[in-house]
Amino acid sequence: MSHLDILLPFALPPTAMGPDLLRAMETPSLAVLLARSKPEPAVAHDAFAHALPHESWLAAAFGLSPDKTTDSSPPLALRAMHRRGFAPESGVWFVLNPVHIHIARDHLVLTDPRRLALADADSRTLFALAAPLFEEIGQQLVYGDAATWFLRADDWAAMQTATPDAACGHNIDIWMPKGPAERDWRKVQNEIQMHWHDCAVNQSREQHGLDPVNSLWLWGATRAEQDARDSSYTDVFNLANWRGEAVRHHDNATIADVLAAKPAHGLLLLDMLIEPALGEDLSEWLMRLNALEAPWFAPLLQALKDGALGSCRLILTHGSLVTGHLITRTTLRKFWLKPSLKGLLQ
User: Fold this and answer.
1) Is residue 57 part of a domain?
2) DSSP letters along 199-255, please?
3) pLDDT at 16
4) What is the pLDDT of residue 288?
């Protein structure tokens, strides 16, 4: 019988605003799914961890958890490289994202990289300025796409890093790369910042009211020889950077695609709430959550009722918590349980 796990990062509303947001939600199918589910124990996460709860959950699901002796970002670089057609055979590789860091009253804050809207041509220009500076210290920079580059830095294997989503919106001090090579990292980072400060790309961006690209974010270190355990999932949907090669993957999937695949054990990521949640834009968060009703929640509920899907599990998170709700045809028969969104309040 087909089973689907659905991961919804930041579907849990902020605690203080939860009741008000629930009253404004227009998701009747989600209310049925939650009310007639079997809740699972919530798992708390450190709010200062170097990966967000949904990132840690995915890392565990795909054999990408970092060394348990350190709090670092998941070793995602190799899978992100494979997705873009690269297959390094040796070395330690990092993900490197061009970013904007702004100055708050008394600290530095990382802006959500999604908001940069960096064009490919501009990214390649910045890459061309940065690559020689890494070459001077014996490191190889590889262009992935406008938002994602890769760095081979074998001597930096012990660096403790954080995902950009874990750090953005906060004082970045505790999320900055730390370890034996942090001084070397900061030195080359500062040199790149000087080269980019007044370059043509940033001059043009500022003229158009866009934030300058003024730094790089380092994370995701992976040894090329590292053998990540593949997950128990037979199919994954909308999980480009996380899935292993042995898993059937479906990008840009709709609910029709999910049901047509008839996954024995599938995993679907719906990540459209991350950006407004990190930006603390509650009106946008609410609009996007409500927009999930017609294309996802309603047909999901119908598929469970019709038997097209045997069961599903909603995995819901916010910045420091993961909750699970198992729904089956049996639990849906509990008609005496009125639809309710209270399961979102934690």
Assistant:
1) no
2) -HHHHHHHHTTPPP--EEEEEEEEETT--PPP-S-SEEES-TTT--TTSEEETT--H
3) 83
4) 98
| Spans of the chain, pLDDT less than 70 | 66-70, 227-230, 243-246
196 and 98 in one domain?
Answer: yes
253 in a structural domain: yes
In a domain, 112, yes or no: yes
Please report the pLDDT score of residue 335 as a whole number: 85
- 302 occurs within a structural domain: yes
Q: Which residue has the tokens 């003024």?
A: 214
pTM: 0.94
Asked whether residue 71 falls in the same domain as residue 218, the answer is yes
pLDDT digit string, tens, across residues 153-180: 999 999 999 999 999 988 899 899 999 9
Q: Which domain holds residue 95?
A: 66-223
Number of domains in the chain: 2
Do 209 and 318 fall within a single domain? no
CA-based end-to-end distance of the chain: 31
> Residue 179 sits in a domain of what CATH number?
3.30.70
Give the separation between CA 260 and CA 138, rounded to whole angstroms.
49
Edge-to-edge strands, sheet with 140-145:
140-145, 148-152, 92-99, 215-223
Q: How many CA atoms lie within 13 A of 343 on its CB side?
A: 29
Q: Given this model, what pLDDT does residue 301 score?
A: 97
Q: What is the pLDDT of residue 67?
A: 62
Q: What is the pLDDT of residue 204?
A: 95
Residues 84 and 27 in one domain: no
Task: Tell the residue number behind the tokens 């953005």, with chain if given.
Answer: 168
Ramachandran class of 27: left when φ > 0, alpha when ψ lies in -120 to 50, beta otherwise: beta
Output the six-digit token pair for 194: 């000087």
Last residue of a domain, one of 165, 193, 223: 223
